[in-house]
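hey so i finaly got around to running the thing on BMP family ABC transporter substrate-binding protein from Phytohabitans suffuscus. pasting the sequence first so u can double check i didnt mess up the copy paste, my clipboard has been acting weird all day
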Amino acid sequence: MTVRIPRLSAVAAAALLLAACATNTTEKAATADGAPGTGGTKIGFIFVGPKDDYGYNQAAYEGSQAVAKAYPDLEVLTAENVPEDDNAARVMEGMVRKGAKIIFATSYGHRDPALKVAAANPDVVVLQQGNIVDGAMPPNFGTYFGTVYEPVYLAGIVAGRTTKSNKLGYVYAFPISQTLDNINAFQLGAASVNPAAKTYVVNTSNWCDPAKQAEAAKSLLSQGVDVISQHQDCTATVIRATEAAGAYTVGYHADASALAPKGWLTGSEWDWGPLYTKMIQTIVAGSFTGSPYNANFRVGLKTGDNPFVQSPYGPAVDAPTKQLVDDARAKISKDGSPFLGPVVDQAGTVRVAAGTVPDYRTIEAIDYFVEGVVGKIPAS
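ok and heres what it spat out for the 3d tokens, dont ask me to read them lol
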């Protein structure tokens, strides 16, 4: 039985529909907690990095602008460079004081501040991007994300078919479930078409540190890696270093093919606008609580609401490779998964039994590297 919990008040829903002051406002994190604003209801978005990072934050920002276009009578507030600490709660509270009734906290580390703000403001819907929250959640809170490891698996197929050295590289930030899922999916995709392929990993312990990213790319290239992908918020540094070395790039978060005209293969891009808009429609209708969004909501190839697209192919990708990708996408969409068993870890232990399709929660609890990944998970 589904337990219904109190939904947004009719006043809040009406305010969203009738909101005035239709100016779209962009503000820096340093000023987002200013004096209470005037005018009608607003929608707030916070980003952990800059909106033009060729990566995660740019994709989320573009999603916020799609919301502004879809709801021209509402004011969209955005704040860049919001840290994953109490500053995030401060910025969100500033948006609430200015009239925000919906807030999207778009970074993994924004979870706890978002929960705090939701608990303190029961008339504000707070949506957090990327986490799973176990246990009870405030009725005005929800998490959401996309199964981006699916297109990452498809990009791994392209990488596995393209490499000449059988050495792929992956630069990542932190060993959280999302990055481990992506690294493993990339390797599994590559190995599905090239069993000799291995993925060498380097972690930077930072979402966007160009100096560390440059050093990581240099290290991978020096080992003979000829295809590099990444899970970093800002992607330009790694892509430029890879292109300069004459190696191939697999992108992430946004289309950065312009940075690698010769070496670009493909990538995985977020397209948040349609999902953000659909979530807001649900809130405006007064049916947020008890809906999929008021939960740990995941969308992907199987749901039809997937918030990602595969990046365009580069010139090095041939027709047979594209066909392999199409076949794999169709299989995942129907009844498969990048993690269809058997899945074996680095130690040779079977983690997913043969023929088993693990559910989303199981995949997001992965804490190991699969066979074929070269490198160790840093101790926490």
